[in-house]
């Protein structure tokens, strides 16, 4: 059997093991869906009336999708840190299995969670008035971009989980950086309304551009009021969102693998 086939086989076993852990601890899945549903209801019905009403709800869902899969990377952080803390990684290291299987299995299982979360969030969005107004192919491309971004973010989470000294540190580190990155974007409000330094960051923020790419492909409004964004990332949102996800993967996959080898060789 080739090395690639062995890595895929071993990774699928690890991914299945991770999913079985969620089956035994369903509160993990509940937490990944309860928070985005809360954000949808809060922004759609509490703030939505002053931000644009029904048009804002369609604008909102693209941002909620991106925020949700970004926050799901915290599962990768905590899952890896927990396995390290309990000695599970040492047990895997003693088995005749591919070295990358632990990381690829973890990120793959978290991608499955993101798929399920997106399905639930799509149903929630339909209930509050969101609709897909583009073509079927555009909608499928939008979901592909969303899951590609989710997979990229899980590798960021894998690296953070491997450098965290404990599960408690991982819980903080996994979410602490996500809040400013997520909220300094156009996930919830237009970047054009922000002060100049924050606006510059928000316009090039992958979360902003991925949300705009989803809105464009779903046929949803890019902005509730005012003209559409005219920055280069916004004008090339689909291309930039795919490119930024690939760049994140190109940076954090080698970093995570190198860190895992250091941890596993101790």
TrEMBL record:
GO terms for molecular function: ABC-type transporter activity. The chain crosses the membrane at residues 28-47, 59-82, 103-128, 140-163, 175-191, 237-258. Keywords: Antibiotic resistance, Cell membrane, Membrane, Transmembrane, Transmembrane helix, Transport. One of its GO terms (biological process) is response to antibiotic. It is found in: Cell membrane; Membrane. It is a multi-pass membrane protein. Residues 27-263 form the ABC transmembrane type-2 domain. InterPro entries: ABC2_TM (IPR013525), ABC2_TM_bact-type (IPR047817), ABC_2_transport (IPR000412), Nod_factor_ABC_transporter (IPR051784). It holds the Pfam family ABC2_membrane. Belongs to the ABC-2 integral membrane protein family. This is Transport permease protein.
């Amino acid at each position: 059997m080739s090395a690639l086939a062995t890595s895929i086989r071993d990774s699928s076993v690890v991914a299945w093991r991770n999913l079985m852990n969620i089956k035994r601890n369903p509160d993990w899945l509940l937490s990944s869906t309860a928070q985005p549903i809360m954000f949808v209801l809060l922004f759609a019905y509490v703030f939505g009336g002053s931000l644009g009403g029904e048009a804002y709800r369609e604008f909102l869902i693209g941002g909620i999708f991106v925020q949700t899969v970004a926050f799901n990377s915290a599962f990768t952080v905590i899952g890896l840190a927990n396995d390290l803390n309990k000695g599970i990684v040492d047990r895997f290291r003693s088995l005749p299995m591919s070295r990358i299987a632990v990381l690829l299995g973890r990120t793959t299982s978290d991608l499955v969670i993101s798929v399920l979360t997106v399905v639930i969030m799509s149903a929630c969005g339909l209930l509050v008035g969101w609709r897909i107004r583009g073509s079927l192919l555009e909608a499928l491309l939008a979901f592909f971009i969303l899951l590609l971004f989710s997979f990229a973010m899980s590798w960021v989470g894998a690296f953070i989980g491997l450098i965290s000294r404990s599960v408690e540190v991982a819980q903080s580190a996994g979410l602490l950086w996500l809040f400013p990155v997520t909220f300094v974007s156009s996930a919830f409000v237009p970047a054009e309304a922000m002060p100049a330094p924050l606006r510059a960051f928000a316009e090039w923020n992958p979360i902003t551009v991925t949300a705009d790419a989803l809105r464009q492909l779903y046929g949803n409004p890019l902005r509730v009021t005012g003209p559409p964004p005219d920055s280069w990332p916004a004008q090339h949102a689909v291309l930039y969102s795919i490119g930024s996800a690939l760049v994140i993967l190109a940076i954090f996959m080698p970093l995570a693998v190198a860190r895992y080898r250091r941890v596993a060789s101790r």
